[in-house]
Amino acid sequence: MAAPPSRRRQAPFLIGLVLILAALPVGWFVFLREPPAPLPPQAPQRTAVAQAEAKKAVELVLSSFDGTVDVKHGEAGAWEPARKDMPLRPTDVVRTGRGSWAVVLNGEAVELRLEAETEISVEELSNELSRVMLSSGLATATVRGRSNVRHTFILKAKGANAEASTAQGTFTMSNNGNGTVSVGTREGDVKLADKEGRYVIVRAGQRSIVRPGMEPSKPEPIPSTVFVKMEWPTGKQRNREVAVVGRTDPGNRVTVDGVNVPTDADGGFTLSLSLKNGPNPVQVTAVNVGGARQTEQQELTFEAPPPPPPPPPKPGIKVDTKVFQESADGTSP
Fold first, then answer.
1. Domain ranges, ordered by start, for the chain
2. So what's the architecture of 55-221 in CATH?
3. What is the DSSP letter of 325?
4. CB atoms within 10 A of CB 7
5. How far, rounded to the nearest angstrom, does the alpha carbon of residue 7 sit from its chain's CA centroid?
6. Alpha-carbon gap, residue 57 to 76, rounded angstroms
7. Residue 329: pLDDT over 90
């Protein structure tokens, strides 16, 4: 049966309408759409040389110091006086003398301050990592975090089972040179670990102590005062050489008249003093990793014992001088 005439007349119209609607998006895309903005030029890929340049070793710089500060290049090098802005590379060693201090910088990433009678050696330097060995003494590190490069600073303790690390913060480490280490944090968090992988997180205002053969102690608040107990001799001293015994908290640094005194794992120490004639003022100072200090003073008087009395004269043989005179004249007695 044939379709009605009205439907036959509507078919071309509907087909044309569909074609027009289908052509509208194509026409808009071809004639009306704005062309896309050109892509920005791509940055050239970093070459292996550029990547190696970014990871090359950087330098520590001895930025400032006061007093006697010496540097040697390598373990076999000779000690020489430090110079301002002196570059320091791996295997270099820095030491400060009595009453002296020094500050070394790794760009804007790390600042390390060495107190009197402190020795460090540089182990590793790069944009991402600084590793320094504290042979003995007291040092404070400030590590500044940066958004573009994460820099980790590690301070190892020579002769001890301890190393402290942080990517942002300020901490102080003391090393008595005999295996006892104390770490106190002022800002940020510091990881204090031993060679067996055991570690604690020392947060701001806390300290931890590592004794020989032991793991880091549980962090505790840094004491605001320092304990020092001295056993001073009494009365006038008859011996010129005197030994004075004292005790402080483990990990504290002790000096007598500015000279460092070794302490044991429990904080005990002995002063060997050589007295001069008359009064001898002695000043003992203990400092903890938080910067608190305590000073004990005493005056020891040396009085030399009186000289022994002269020995009595030995009994002699009585001689008759008359006999000798007659013999000299040639006459017999």
1. 55-221, 228-302
2. Sandwich (2.60)
3. H
4. 9
5. 97
6. 21
7. no
